[in-house]
Amino acid sequence: MSRKRLDIGFHRSDQRAEVNYNNNNRREFYQDRHTKRQRQEMSNPLTGRPYNTHYYDLLSTRMKLPVFEYKEKVLDLINKHQIVCLVGETGSGKTTQIPQWCVTWIRSNCPPRMKVACTQPRRVAAMSVAARVAEEMDVEVGKEVGYNIRFEDCTSPNTILKYLTDGMLLREAVSDPLLEAYGIIVLDEAHERTLATDILMGLLKEIAKQRPQLKILIMSATLDCGKFQEYFNNAPLVTIPGRLFPVEIFYSPEPESNYLDSAINSVIQIHMCEETSGDILLFLTGQEEIDEACKAIQSEVSKLGPNIGKINCIPLYSTLPPNLQQRIFEPPPESKKGIGRKVVVSTNIAETSLTIDGIVYVIDPGFSKQKLYNPRIRVESLLVSEISKASAKQRAGRAGRTKPGKCFRLYTENTYINGMQENTYPEILRSNLSSVVLQLKKLGIDDLVHFDFMDPPGLLFLVYFLSAGNIDASIGDVELPGSHRR
Question: Family assignment (predicted)?
Answer without folding.
Answer: Belongs to the DEAD box helicase family. DEAH subfamily. DDX15/PRP43 sub-subfamily.
